[in-house]
Specification:
22% helix, 342 residues, six-stranded antiparallel sheet, 9 helices, Thrombin, subunit H, 2 domains
Amino acid sequence: MRVDLFDFDLPPENIALRPARPRDAAKLLHVAGGAPLTDHIVRDLPTLLRAGDVLVFNDTRVIPAQLEGRRGEARIGATLHKRLDLRRWQAFIRNGKRLKDGDTIDFGAEVSATAEARHEDGSWTLFFPGEEPVEVLLERAGRMPLPPYIAGKRETDAQDRSDYQTMFAQKDGAVAAPTAALHFTPELMAALAQAGIAHETLTLHVGAGTFLPVKADDTADHQMHAEWGRIEPETAARLNAVRAAGGRIIAVGTTSLRLLESAADEARVIHPFEGDTAIFITPGYTFKAIDGLMTNFHLPKSTLFMLVSALMGLDTMQAAYAHAIAGGYRFYSYGDSSLLLP
């Protein structure tokens, strides 16, 4: 499909630079197949779902994966993208033309890395020497990797250390937050449980590739970056039991959805999963694992807007986004939410 089909105009004032407070006070647009659009807040979620449904969250934890350093006189920026082993990460490099194999980048705070190999997409393998875990080094020298559309408008600060983590964050490894879950609070989770709505967690370490624009003119020519994920056998079994009992599986965030779809077979059975996924979902895709999605509002011409258009239909999502823009909904990572039920 032509990528320009997924374009739309977004006024800059609709881009959120800070999250709603409290988190569950964010707006929520309910988009149901064939029904009128309705405006809510996230706190209304227990009334929009049914007893027996299950919400699936991503429990990845964002690490301070953005580094600023020097190789000699050259300033080098690095955004870690994907762990390769205990001491090696693949990273997108700013000013990477100034690097060659074997160069050392000094990131300050007694943290350095060796540029080991350049990949075809321009990223590099960085090796972090020493005995301290890389996560410890990043806590000392790194910053939270806010998306470019936020970082370009203000500096990352101490508040982002908590704002850019979900309440489910447990497993270190993401360089972008699973932002749909930023809206949840302990109070909302208690209300959902009281309404008979269960929840499960899986792990997908979101990579920096989620921020990359689609540069191809046709979706067939776009290559997704792989991300590592895991669904435990017990989790898969419980999710299959929910569906067998007539409940719906609602992914919270496109990261949860992509991993669930990667783990499901044609019979709509979800299997345990551990490994990389580079699934790219566009209109025409047949969903096998999920019955709905809660997600924020995405960038024009992004793979994530393509995904929600595959779930609900491109015309429906264009109308929904036009409604959201006109209604003052806030977009992107710190923005408002939508509940999509085809």
